[in-house]
Write a structure and sequence with these properties.
The longest helix has 19 residues. It is built from 13 helices and 10 strands. The model has no long low-confidence stretch (mean pLDDT 90).
Length: 327
């Protein structure tokens, strides 16, 4: 049960979606630990003049990460994107991923991300120049189109295949939908049957049943998991076990989930430093607590109110441990 990107045969067909502000080094590490076939950096600007900023530095890949290492770049100018791809390969990227799927206004207002799907000639130029600039596989993330009356993902997919893109990930929504409404998979199914490169489906994957339905309906080669992994990185193992019919499949014990949660939060503190790390950790703590309190969701708000005001990393971790051990 693997997924192929160029010469890289991944260990799983479940890949972690690049997510700005989320898929940092600590998050990538914990998802790989539980069997994500590939993790990618957060979205990295193609403007190399911004590389010295703390935010960009923390988003860059590190050579001590397991291979293959994927870096996602975003931008609008073909030659600038090509230079950004070369830079990321030089610092250790084994795969370059191009973002044409981000719906955020601050990205689309600069005609980047999913806004690029409005200009297929520019799409072709970017893909061709980036592929030509590096000797590693280049992948692409798109949406089904700009809006419901402008679903051109099939056209973009064919451009991608002709440009030498090694793998295509498709989020089943238009840019205008953002993350509202429901993802649709018919467009993804049509694309999978129309092109020969590997295709990943993304969007509204919330349960094991969703996984099985999407794989069967679209016949895609793999899935890109995003929000489903928040606060439960072990979801990769749980789904992988089902897909390979591992027998017997033992549920992950609460003790292991608690250890993973504490280890991840500690890694965030160490990666960002204590002050910044405390702030970054809060959203992850909220997600972990939401998953771990289970049927006791009425406890979630009081628990987060109790832990969110803490500004000391040591006290934050200690308080989180006391809450988790009481579950």
């Amino acid at each position: 049960m693997s997924y192929q990107i160029g010469s890289y045969k991944l260990t799983s067909k479940l890949l972690l979606a690049p997510m700005a502000g989320i898929t940092d080094r600590p998050y990538r590490d914990v998802c790989r630990q539980y069997g994500a076939g590939l993790t990618s950096s957060e979205m990295i600007t193609s403007d190399l003049s911004l590389l010295k900023s703390r935010k960009t530095q923390q988003r860059l890949l590190q050579r001590n990460e397991p291979s293959p290492r994927s870096a996602q770049i975003v931008g609008t100018e073909p030659h600038v994107m090509a230079e950004a791809a070369k830079f990321n390969v030089d610092i250790g990227a084994d795969i370059i991923d191009i973002n044409m799927g981000c719906p955020a206004k601050k990205v689309c207002n600069k005609a980047a991300g999913s806004a690029l799907m409005k200009d297929t000639k520019l799409v072709a130029k970017i893909l061709e120049q980036v592929v030509a600039a590096v000797d590693v596989p280049v992948t692409l993330k798109i949406r089904t189109g700009w809006e419901s009356s402008h679903r051109n993902a099939l056209e973009v997919a064919r451009i991608a295949e002709n440009s030498g893109i090694a793998s295509l990930a498709i989020h089943g929504r238009t840019r205008n939908q953002g993350y509202t409404g429901h993802a649709e998979y018919e467009t993804i199914r049509q694309i999978k049957h129309a092109i020969d490169i590997p295709v990943l489906a993304n969007g509204d994957i919330k349960t094991i049943e969703d996984v099985l339905f999407i794989l069967n309906y679209t016949n895609v080669d793999g899935l890109m998991l995003g929000r489903i992994s928040h606060g439960q990185p072990w979801i990769f193992k749980e789904i992988n076990d089902i897909l390979v019919n591992a027998a017997p499949t033992f549920p992950i014990k609460l003790e292991e989930k608690i250890d993973t949660t504490l280890s991840h939060i500690d890694a965030i503190h160490r990666y960002y430093g204590t002050d910044h790390g405390v702030r970054i950790a809060r959203k992850h703590i909220g997600w972990y607590l939401s998953n771990l309190v289970g049927q006791q969701q009425k406890l979630l708000k009081p628990l987060t109110k109790e832990i969110y005001p803490i500004s000391c990393s040591k006290k934050q971790l200690q308080k989180l441990e006391s809450i988790l051990l009481a579950l």
